[in-house]
Design goal:
236 residues, alpha+beta, 5-stranded mixed beta sheet
Length: 236
């Protein structure tokens, strides 16, 4: 698998996202995945805000979250079925503003895929919109998928035998987040200025339609649920 980050100029708020992407791709080969950081998607949608004080920011976090509680360092929140810090609201590389998460990354990924397929005359193409997340009890961040199109986001091993013939009962590989983590590693989180990347040679299954809820787990079925069952809820 080869990941190629793409250095660009600074993306401006309200700019045409598709035109910006096309500017940096002379061609796109078949069986590629185009990576787009969620920050430029949000900027294209003008999903920004100015927090005049801490109270304004906290109100915004609550409004953007399905669940929110303050912790030592950040607000622990649930948004779009994912646990994240402060509803994904980011202050880095934001020119003094707060950048919110995009409205619907699955919809945007699907739209971009169709436009790029036509522009570059490719059939098997994936688009993946990424963000970064922390993992409980681990230092540092990894990549995460906020939305994707053109490939299956999960590989299911359940019911299949392992190398000794024993059938898997629970094993599934999170393809979308694995690709996002690999991409974020090479794209960087600082001043690298690489909001785009391509992945070729990935061991994935391309498809026309995806199941946007295939990676979601209901809290009552999540193996970590006992850790959260006694947490107090904070309503909006």
């Amino acid at each position: 698998m080869i990941i190629q980050p793409i250095k660009t100029r600074v993306f401006r708020e309200g700019e045409d996202l598709l035109a910006f992407i096309i500017r940096y791709f002379k061609k796109i080969p078949e069986r590629s995945v185009i990576i787009v950081t969620s920050k430029i998607v949000a900027l294209a949608e003008r999903r920004t805000a100015v927090a005049k004080d801490i109270q304004t920011k906290e109100k915004l976090i609550r409004a953007e979250s399905e669940f929110a509680m303050p912790t030592k360092y950040v607000w622990l929140t649930v948004k779009d079925g994912m646990v994240m810090a402060s509803a994904g609201i980011d202050e880095s590389n934001a020119c003094g503003k707060l950048i919110l998460l995009p409205r619907d990354c699955f919809k945007t990924a699907g739209w971009l895929r169709k436009k790029l397929q036509v522009k570059y005359k490719v059939k098997k193409l994936g688009v993946l919109i990424t963000d970064s997340r922390t993992i409980p009890l681990r230092a540092g961040i990894t990549g995460v998928s906020l939305g994707y199109a053109g490939f299956k986001g999960i590989k299911d091993y359940r019911g299949k035998p392992d190398i000794f013939g024993r059938k898997f009962h629970f094993s599934r590989t999170d393809v979308a987040d694995s690709l996002a983590t690999a991409a974020v590693l090479v794209m960087g989180e600082g001043k690298e200025q690489q909001p785009l990347a391509t992945i070729t040679g990935a061991p994935i299954e391309f498809c026309q339609k995806i199941k946007r809820d295939e990676l979601r787990i209901d809290i009552k079925d999540d193996m970590y649920q006992p850790l959260f069952s006694n947490l107090p809820k904070i309503t909006k």
